[in-house]
Amino acid sequence: MDMAGHSMIVAPDGTVLQSAAMEAAVITSKLDSTAVDEQRHRFYPAGDRSWLTTDHEKVQDLDTVAAKTRLIRRQGSRLAFTNGCFDLVHAGHVSYLEAARRTADCLVVGINTDASVRSLKGADRPVNNEQDRARVLAALGCVDYVILFADPTPLRLITTLLPDVLVKGADWPEAEIVGASEVKAAGGRVVRIVFQHDRSTTALIDKIRASARAPINTF
């Protein structure tokens, strides 16, 4: 209502769309998704955001994710970040990512490009290309955004996003975790998660190769 007590229709950005009148009126207004999200957070918990996108839209560049997570954090949510190659995603990966997501309200995963994986793992890796690996991770409910990165380390992603929680496997000493000092200096924390070492991409590839070499029983 206005100061005189008359009814009005107001858009999320405060624009008056229609004041009180006797005649019928058709009112249209283009809703800005950012303005809508800014208002929605008043009515539900930060971590209880509805799922508005299809999975493939979770795969974005750094600038886009930085803008989206700034909004999420203004709404009171905490941001977690982790990274890896995630080639041949298996149960160990899924358990790790689920645990990472439980540390915050939003999980961003950085994954190495194909060239970066080859430099780390050898010429015969990755088995799956970067677009396929990103798409598989995006289908996991515990993952909110995926960013491909070609740098030797994810430091640029970490210093740009400055997550509340930086997650890495427990086999990494905190002193050797890239971005740990920057995140802690900004008031965040580092969480080291025990990985299921009986499940790994390398072990899976070795098993496939061994199976391929095994003689075929023809009787």
TrEMBL record:
Recorded hits in InterPro entries, A to Z, give:
Archaeal_FAD_synthase, C-N_Hydrolase_sf, Cyt_trans-like, RfaE_dom_II, Rossmann-like_a/b/a_fold
Alphabetized GO MF terms: ATP binding; nucleotidyltransferase activity; phosphotransferase activity, alcohol group as acceptor
Query: Keyword Disulfide bond: yes or no?
Result: no
Species of the source: Desulfobulbus oligotrophicus
Residue span(s) of domain Cytidyltransferase-like: 81-174
- Which branch of life, at top level? Bacteria
Which keywords fit this entry according to its UniProt record?
ATP-binding, Carbohydrate metabolism, Nucleotide-binding, Nucleotidyltransferase, Transferase
Q: Which reaction does it catalyse?
A: D-glycero-beta-D-manno-heptose 1-phosphate + ATP + H(+) = ADP-D-glycero-beta-D-manno-heptose + diphosphate
Segment forming the signal sequence:
none
Q: What is its EC number?
A: 2.7.7.70
Q: What is the lineage of its organism?
A: Bacteria, Pseudomonadati, Thermodesulfobacteriota, Desulfobulbia, Desulfobulbales
Q: Name one GO biological process term.
A: carbohydrate metabolic process
> What's the protein here called?
D-glycero-beta-D-manno-heptose 1-phosphate adenylyltransferase
